[in-house]
Amino acid sequence: MQARAFGATGRQVPVIGQGTWNLERDDEKSAVAALRRGLDLGLTHIDTAEMYGRGAAERLIAKAIEGRRHEVFLVSKVLPENSSRAGTLRACERSLERLATDHLDLYLLHWRGAVPLEETVSAFEQLRADGKIRAWGVSNCDVEDLDELAKLAPIERVACNQVLYHLEERAIEHAVLPWCERRGVALVGYSPFGTGSFPSARGRGGRVLQEVADAHGATPRQVALAFLVRRPPLFAIPKASDPRHVEDNAGAGELRLTPEEIARIEQAFPLGRRPRSLPTI
Description:
Layout: E1 3-5, E2 12-14, H1 28-40, E3 45-47, H2 56-65, E4 73-78, H3 85-99, E5 106-109, H4 117-129, E6 136-139, H5 143-152, E7 158-164, H6 176-183, E8 186-190, H7 204-216, H8 220-228, E9 234-236, H9 243-250, H10 259-268
Parallel strand pairs: 3-4, 4-5, 5-6, 6-7, 7-8, 8-9
Antiparallel strand pairs: 1-2
């Protein structure tokens, strides 16, 4: 499994991780088995949030990583309505309890809300000083948010920005990706297969993916993931509740696309114009 430096954390993190949004809706036994199989295959970056199933996903992850916490780069997020200084401290404690751990490797603000960023940053710094988190960052933040953040804390404190990123939603490439690339901030793509709309093999884009996959003895989804982590700041966290799907995701971790293949995929899935606001789900 290919790994690379993850922002300012000082950690080498696999380019493909494991997302857990809606994982609690799946069969628990299969979901736990999928997470554990992912760890076996080197998918040690596990991402969750207090919002996911109102904490149910965090409790499920606790079962999956029991006895294996030392292997995991564990990430959770605080909701914007809880992101005041005091609220963030309390939310983190609740997540730690549900995850049955004494620290998070990374803690994120899930998205911008009404609470001033400086309050959340102050709490993050306190949690870091107390050893409750190793690093912090943000999610769903556009360049304007990142510029504001850079005025509140040294940029090396901002480990990552987690964003919506898949073949048919490449808006981050206009400004967010270059911003993070210049400053060494990791950019983690969630929902890398889209939201139930992975390109059909009957469409032009799907045919290109299949042709590239055939050239590598891979699958179209592996090609999609390899494309989405093709540049140094990029990571992806596909969710899978079936061990077989986890195995497919893991196969993308060693896949290297040629410049010509990347150009073909870029042409098949055009970037489009920069939207007025950063897309999210």
